Amino acid sequence: MSTLRGLYAITDSAMLAEGRLLPYVEAALQGGARLVQYRDKSQDASRRQDEAAALAALCRQHGASLIINDDLALARQLGVGLHLGQGDGSLAAARADLGVDAIIGGTCHASLELAEGAAQAGASYLAFGRFFASSTKPNAPPAPLELLDQARSRFTLPLCAIGGVTLDNAPRLLERGVDLLAVVHTLFSAASAGEVERRARAFAQLFTA
Q1: What is this structure's pTM?
Q2: 16, 43, 81, 167: which could form a disulfide with 21 (CB 3.0–4.6 Å)?
Q3: Residues 6+ apart with CB under 8 A from 184
Q4: SS3 per-residue string spanning the chain
C-alpha cells in the first residue's frame, strides 16, 4: 500500500484530445504522479485498449500505477488497477476477479456508509468528494472537510480526495489525513506538457513538506 500516497492524475478524454494524452501523462509522471487513472467513457474499444496499454507502459517506466476507470475487462487484460464509481459494478466481484494484489478504488462521494461498503468489499482506497467546486464534476454532491476527519478515525485504508483540488486548497486536505490528491483540471488544463510537469511537481512537493 506504500504507493497509495501522492498525486493521483486522472485523465479527461476531451481535455487530452488531439494527441495530448500520452505526452501530458508522461509529463505528470515525470513531475511525480504516483497513480494515473485512465478515464474514457467512449465506445471506441480499440482506441481505448491502445491508449490504456501505452499508459500502462509509461506508468511502469516511472514506477507508478495505472488505474482503469470502470472497465474490469480492460484492467484484467492489462494487469492493472481499477476504479469503480457507484453503479459501475460490484467491487467485491472485481476483487475476486483481479486478485488480492490489484489496486481497486471505490467512489464514496460524501458518504461514510458507502465507504464502509467499499472497505468491506475489498477496496484499496476510498475516494471522497467533491470538496470544492469542480469543473469536471459540477453536479457531484459536495463533501464537507469534516468528513475526512470522520473517515480517518473510522478507516485504515488510504483516503483519496477529488473534486476541485488545487495547489491552494490541497494543504487543507492533507492536514486532514488525505493520502491521495486526485486532480484532473488543475493538472491537465495546461497549455504545454512542460507546464503539466511543473504543476505535477508542485503537487508532489506538498507530500514532502
Answers
A1: 0.96
A2: 16
A3: 10, 11, 12, 15, 136
A4: CCCCCEEEEECCCCCCCCCCHHHHHHHHHHHCCCEEEECCCCCCHHHHHHHHHHHHHHHHHCCCEEEEECCHHHHHHHCCEEEECCCCCCHHHHHHHHCCCCCEEEEEECCHHHHHHHHHHCCCEEEECCCCCCCCCCCCCCCCCHHHHHHHHHCCCCEEEECCCCCCCHHHHHCCCCCEEEECHHHHCCCCHHHHHHHHHHHHHHCCC
Q: Letter for the amino acid at 159? A: L
* Cβ 148 vs Cβ 176: under 8 Å: yes
Q: Answer whether 180's CB lies under 8 Å from 161's CB.
A: yes
Rounded to an integer, what distance in angstroms lies between the CA atom of residue 190 and that of residue 198?
10
What does the alpha-carbon distance between residue 175 and residue 185 come to, in Å, rounded to a whole number? 22
Q: What is the spatial distance between Cα 108 and Cα 115, in angstroms, rounded to a whole number?
A: 5
- Among residues 18, 78, 71, the alpha carbon closest in space to that of 42 is found at 71
Is there a contact between 197 and 31 (Cβ–Cβ < 8 Å)?
yes
| Strand 65-69 to 6-10 pairing | unpaired
Q: How confident is the model at residue 1 (pLDDT cuts 50, 70, 90)?
A: very low
Asked if the model's pLDDT at residue 97 lies above 90, the reply is yes
